[in-house]
Every structure is written in structure tokens, then in C-alpha cells.
Amino acid sequence: MAEPESIALTVDEIVVRVSPGTTVAAAALIAGSHTRLSIAGEPRAPLCGMGICFECRVAINGVPHQRSCQILCAPGMRVTTGRELAIR
Amino acid sequence: MSRAFDILVVGAGPAGIAAAVTAAECGLSVGVVDDNPAPGGQIWRNGAHLPASARRWKMRFEAAPLVRLQGWRIVDRPQPGTVRAQSNDAEFAPDAAARDGADLHYRQLILATGARERFLPFPGWTLPNVIGAGGLDAMVRGGLPIAGRRVVVAGTGPLLLAVAAHLASRGATIAAICEQASAAQIAPLMLNLITQPGKLWQGASYRWATRNSRYLTRCWPVAARGDERLRSVILQRDGKQWTVNCDFLACGFHLVPNTELAALLGCSLDNGFVSAGELMQTSVPGIWCAGEPTGIGGVELSLLEGQIAGLAAAGKTQAAQKLARRRRGALSFVRALGRACRLDSQLRHLAAPETIVCRCEDVPLHALRVHTGWRDAKLHTRCGMGPCQGRICGGATEFLFGWRAGSVRPPLFPALVSTLGGTQAPVVTTSPEETL
Predict the structure, then answer these.
(1) Lower CB density within 10 Å: C or N end of chain B?
(2) Which residues of B touch A21 (CB under 8 A)?
């Protein structure tokens, strides 16, 4: 299934394999998740796709509020979405 | 880190690429800051289906002796002639030096900051998978699989057909393409394009690629329905409503220029756009602006403006003036495009009282209605005070209430305190052929 040069990372502790050049935002959606939770606790997912709207915020390697649509997946990256953590 | 350049270009879309390549070919030291993972901006984002001219410009950009800060964004202007940037991975990068950011000193600054989509609130627009038209296109170019998914493309502007055609080529089912404008409103744009057969041909090829999908004018979404994600969209045309099941609603109401950095630097704006003279000079000496921030005009005009700005900033005034004459003829397209994309006033009534307008701070329409202006609403409701700083809701409230966002203050984007605190590193004057 996985391409030889695919990148393995985890999204909410689920292993996801993506091709190089894939954004973390795409990986979150591939893993079946949204990205952040709104103040009222509603799931939100990328809107603008270009680093403006901040709806794509996830935690990367434990650091919250990272704009996943402008960051590329890297091997071993740990991504945590609003599904796992209440990130605002 | 601290670097000094003859010319610093902000943005690596078509305008920024043209400006940087042109200035570097004049023999000056040129730096380029761009916040995306790869150059190309939104329209030339990586992936297949790039026209030959885009590939040629990107190759020239790769070959030019430039210092590239790719994946960096400008957050502040600590003093005249200097901007401060932070890399997108600064906060989780193992390299501690990344947290200090970079001070970029320039003699001349060229702003090519592009545009974003305008989003209008309607019930359900905050559901996951309700996304911009360009937004979904960017996600797909960033690796999101779309084959076999049902997509409704809606909003206004030429971007809709381009996005629909690209998604269809990737195997998506385009359930409908909904253009809010009437056919009569769009017709003059087609007439304007008679002088630009390339654009007409491109439009025709997009429509051919989506020939199995309905293209509906005077049609827009009135609600999105779903649970943890979008399941269906209610569309309206001529007072009739119907439901379409879909996986994505790709919806954008034309473009809004990114003028925040220009405003922070003190450049005059006119009707929301950066004021630029015929050589793309702004009101601030030494600062130039090219591409969509000066008027939404598409790729070809952006390339032309980028070259004019690059030549003018490099002191090649005569060569710049020659190109400026060509630009004058192309400006009628900007006006025709603006008229074709003028929003139907009925779209002001899509949002229900409880519909969220400011997505960062969860501010609903009814909380905003009672206020007299942007500043008043901000102070009382926190509208526009979240991390996007009103870049999304500001485009909506401008249309809904006629509010114009007020002054811009640093930081332009959320930034590390260590970045804002500044760098003590010595200034490095750049030599060519470096990539940071």
C-alpha cells in the first residue's frame, strides 16, 4: 500500500502514510479528523488552505496552534488534532 | 539572524517571482520571503496542470541568484528599512536559533502579498469540509485525495471554473458549479477578453473539462447541513431551493487583497487596494507593490506588474516605463472583472441571527448587527480579534455592513516572544546562491 518513499507520521496516534510534499492539514483529513475545536467546542477544518484563517491549527510534536496547511509532513511527526485535545 | 539586501521581495506568487527574477537579473542582491512551503503562490501551487509559462517562470526563479526564505512570514517592522520574519516551523523546530526569527534589512521593498478569498457566512458554513474554492484546490495540491468525492463549487469569479476543472481532472465528481452573478453580468467580461484569446480559450477548456456538471448562474448556497462534517448543501436559484448531497462545498466569493503589511508600513490604500503609481511605486519611497494588492487582475497582469516593480526598484526606470505602457492597456480587465464579480445584495441575507460571522471568536451575526462600525464591534464582541485578526470576518463584514477594518498593528501574525524581542545577531550581507 505504502509507496517506498512515503512519509510515516501519526495523527492522534494513528499512523498515516503520505507522499512527500503532503501538508499536515491534508494528513489530518486523510486520518479522518477535523483540525481544531472552536471556542464552543465545534469541530473546525481548513477553510482558506493558505495560512490566513487559522482554522487548520493542530499541535505538532506537542506544540499547539500550528498552521497545518503551510507545514509539510515530516517522518515521525506527531500531530494532535481537536479530536484528541481541546485546542483553541 | 540578520540579513541585508538591495531588494527584498515579499511573496513568491507570479508577481513576486517576476519581481525577484527581474531584479536579480539586474545584478542586485535580492531576498524573497514567502510563507508557503514552496514558491508559486496560490495560482502556481505545486502539482500537475501548471501552464508552460508558469513552469518557465518557476525555473527562472529556481535558477536566479536569490536568497530564499521559503516558509517564513513577516510579523513585524521593528524600524524603517527592516522587517522581522519568523519561520513556520520555528515553534517546534529542534533548532533553537529558529526561535529568534530574522531581521531583514532592505534598500528597496517589493510587496507581492497576493490575495485571499472572500467568504460569506451562511448557516452551516463553519462545518468541516465547507472550504474555500481556492482553499480546496490548495488542499488537493497539498496531498488531499479527492478522487471519487462529490464536490459543489460555489461563489463567484473565474476561479470557480478553474478549480472545478482541476478537481474533475483529479477524479472528483463536480455536483454543481454555482455562480452568484447573472449571465448578463458576466457577459461584458467575456467581451473584454476578446483581446485576450488565451484567457477565453482557457475558460472554454475549463468548461469543457466540467461539461458533465451543471453550471448555474444566479445560484448560491443558502445552507450547509451535516454532523461532524458536511453532508449536503441547500442551493437556491430564482427563489427555488433544493438539496444536493456532497462531501465538500468549495465556496469563495472572489478575492480580497492582502494589504496588511502595506498598511503596517504606512502605504496609502485606496478603496481597499494599495495605491500604486505607473511604476508600481507606493506612497512610501522605496516601497513598491505588484499583483493583486493593487487590483485583482490575474496572473498575466501580476507578472507584468512584478517585472515593472523589479525593474523600477533596480533603477531601470526606462525599461520599467516601457512595460508600464503595456500595463495601462490591461487595466480595463481589472475593472471588468470587478463588475462581473459584484455580489448580489440578496447574499447579505444568507446568515441567520445565530450564524457565526467571526470564526476565531465565535461571534454570531446578531451580536454584530447592533454595532455601528468595525472598531465598535471589535471592542464589544471580540470580532476580528482572534488569530486571523479579521482577515476572514473582515471580508464578510465589509460586504454585510460596509465596515472597513481599521489600523493594522504588529504583530501581523501570532509570533514567538523570542522573535518579537529581536535578534542580536550581526548583519550578514548576502551573497547569491543561498537558500535558507
Answers:
(1) C
(2) 37-38, 46, 142-143
Q: According to CATH, what is the number of the domain A7-80?
A: 3.10.20.30
How high is the ipTM of this complex? 0.94
CATH of domain B119-253: 3.50.50.60
In sequence order, what DSSP letters do the residues of A20-74 get, joined into one string? TT-BHHHHHHHTT--SEE-TTS-EE--SSSSSSS-TTEEEETTEEEEEGGGSB--
Predicted confidence (pLDDT) per residue in B401-433, tens digit: 999 887 899 999 999 888 888 766 666 655 444
Residue A44 to residue B229, Cβ atoms within 8 A: no
**Domain(s) of CATH 3.50.50.60: residues in chain B:** 2-116+256-337+416-435, 119-253
Max CA pair span of chain B: 66
Could you report the per-residue pLDDT of B125-184, keeping only the tens digit for each? 999 999 999 999 999 999 999 999 999 999 999 999 999 999 999 999 999 999 999 999
For residue A68, the chain B residues in CB contact (below 8 A) are none
> Given this structure, which CATH class describes domain B2-116+256-337+416-435?
alpha beta
> 3-state DSSP call for residue B186?
helix
